[in-house]
Amino acid sequence: MSGSGPTPLFAAYGIVKRFGAFTANDGVDLEIRAGEIHALLGENGAGKSTLMKILYGLLEPSEGVVTHRGDVVRLASPEAARALGIGMVFQHFSLCENLTVAENIALVMPKSLGGRALPERIARLGREYGLHLDPDRPVWSLSAGERQRIEIVRCLLQDPKLIILDEPTSVLTPGEAEGLFTVLERLRDEGRALLYISHRLDEVRRLCTRATILRGGRVVGACNPQDETARSLAALMVGTQVRAVTPKAPPAGGRERLRVERLDLPAPGLHATPLRDVSLSVAGGEILGIAGIAGNGQAELFAALSGETPAPRPDSVRIDGAPVGRRGINARRRCGAAFVPEERNGHAAAPSMRLSENALLSRHATAPLARLGLLQRGAAQDLARRVIEAFDVRKAGPDPAAGTLSGGNLQKFVVGREILAEPGLLVVNQPTWGVDAAAAAQIRQAVIDLAGRGAAILVISQDLDELFEIADAIAVLHAGTLSAPVPTGRTSRAAVGLLMGGADEPGADTVALPARAAIREAAHAP
């Protein structure tokens, strides 16, 4: 995609990257100009991460070149990339919890930029860009938004000319995201180049004036995102129109299938979050969304609901009326429950095991499957095949190891495995974390359809668009305390975002009613 305009600040031409017989990038061209925010778009497995790692010196290409102001350069390491002015803000924070802000930043600073003056430089840069940080605060005491600021500040302290951002808003409240957008626009206006990677296409349309689209490791198009809609961008990414999610019908007032009553749990570790007086209720046909910023007790709540962490009292958690608070995950599955944890690799699936073996991991202890003899290899392969076909899981080979799948395809497999069990209760943590628009729509539709068949669904998610699309009501988990659920039609993203950030009271457009009465009132409203 070499153009006739000015020489790009950085460019990649003919990039090929092979891993054995697999080609992750296949002749990719990319030009990034100074003073622009350039989007790199593609579905899961399209080759974005590989190209990003090549530009940051984490991988070297099998073929092709990278240029800086027209000159071919070799990026043999991240240090070499940073020396040329390339910085990167990763999706997953790489911070040491027990160190201070300044100590974390000093870890990656060249000696010439560290020393006693570093705290003042951090504070000065924070004031300049609105990225306020206390250099002496320990990281464990910071919110997700403040941790994101650390990543950006330590990148900016090295005065980068190109900043690569990988899903930078994935753990931010709406207000924090707005603040980040202001910073990014200022950096653009200073003449820096930004390469922006996100599955949130409305953000891309707001920020970016050029986009390169990858599919199957190749460049398949380029556009100005501001001339597109989110749906047309998604179609460019996947090669076809993404089916819209069918809106969920109001719940029909089914029987209560999950009740959590006054659940208190101490923090299981030094940096974990204790749960305080958590109560909730979900009936058949209902989807209750739990919003919150990472680190506010979502993992601890999931563990308490799944049985990985026992509750203090048996009646703290009830499934279809049975007290299961002291019972483990297999006992809860035998009560008709299913669970999808946030971490798909290592928690939801064993990366080194085949898909057929992973298909049985969550079902081996359930009585109906034991009677059917599904522990036999042929039956396990049949179960995996049904999940693969129903959820369009794309893979290499007939029964590959789970770890060989892209993140989005493994997520579809894990969610599909649980939904095809037809549970009466599904608890899912971050159902579409890091997946492309088509995969997200498919997963959300499957969750809605399961609720339509009478299951109770509890969805823990940091994606407010997701919760407003599929949930009947939303509650907010902040610092281990759960707010009263409110029907999605009677609140707003701004009000929920305030609660996520720690506001004590709901916004004016939020009505704090008990979950059962509120949902049923909304369902029967004219």
> What is the 3D form?
globular
Structural class from helices and strands? alpha/beta
The tally of domains stands at 2
The name of the CATH topology of the largest domain is Rossmann fold
Mean of all residue-level pLDDT scores? 87
Approximate helicity band? 25-40%
Look at the structure and name the CATH superfamily of the largest domain: P-loop containing nucleotide triphosphate hydrolases
Which CATH class of the largest domain applies here? Alpha Beta
* Estimated share of beta-strand residues: 15-25%
Report the sheet with the most strands, covering strand number, pairing sense and barrel closure. Answer: 7 strands, mixed
- In DSSP terms (H or I, runs of 4 or more residues), the helix count works out at 18
Number of strands: 21
Task: Identify the CATH architecture of the largest domain.
Answer: 3-Layer(aba) Sandwich
Report on this model:
- The protein is α/β, with parallel strands linked by helices and 526 residues long.
- The chain contains 18 helices and 21 strands.
- The strands form 4 sheets. Strands 13, 16, 17, 18, 19, 20 and 21 form a 7-stranded mixed β-sheet that branches. It has a 6-stranded mixed β-sheet with strand order 6-7-8-3-9-10, sandwiched between helices.
Write the layout of secondary structure elements.
Blueprint: E1 10-19, E2 22-32, E3 37-42, H1 48-55, E4 63-68, E5 71-73, H2 78-83, E6 86-89, H3 101-106, H4 118-129, H5 144-156, E7 162-166, H6 174-189, E8 193-197, H7 201-207, E9 210-215, E10 218-223, H8 230-238, E11 256-265, E12 275-283, E13 287-291, H9 298-306, E14 317-319, E15 322-323, H10 329-334, E16 337-340, H11 355-361, H12 367-372, H13 377-390, H14 407-419, E17 425-429, H15 437-452, E18 456-461, H16 464-470, E19 473-478, E20 481-482, E21 486-487, H17 493-500, H18 515-523
Parallel strand pairs: 3-8, 3-9, 6-7, 7-8, 13-18, 13-19, 16-17, 17-18
Antiparallel strand pairs: 1-2, 1-4, 4-5, 9-10, 11-12, 11-14, 14-15, 19-20, 19-21
Helix pairs in contact: 11-13, 13-14, 14-15
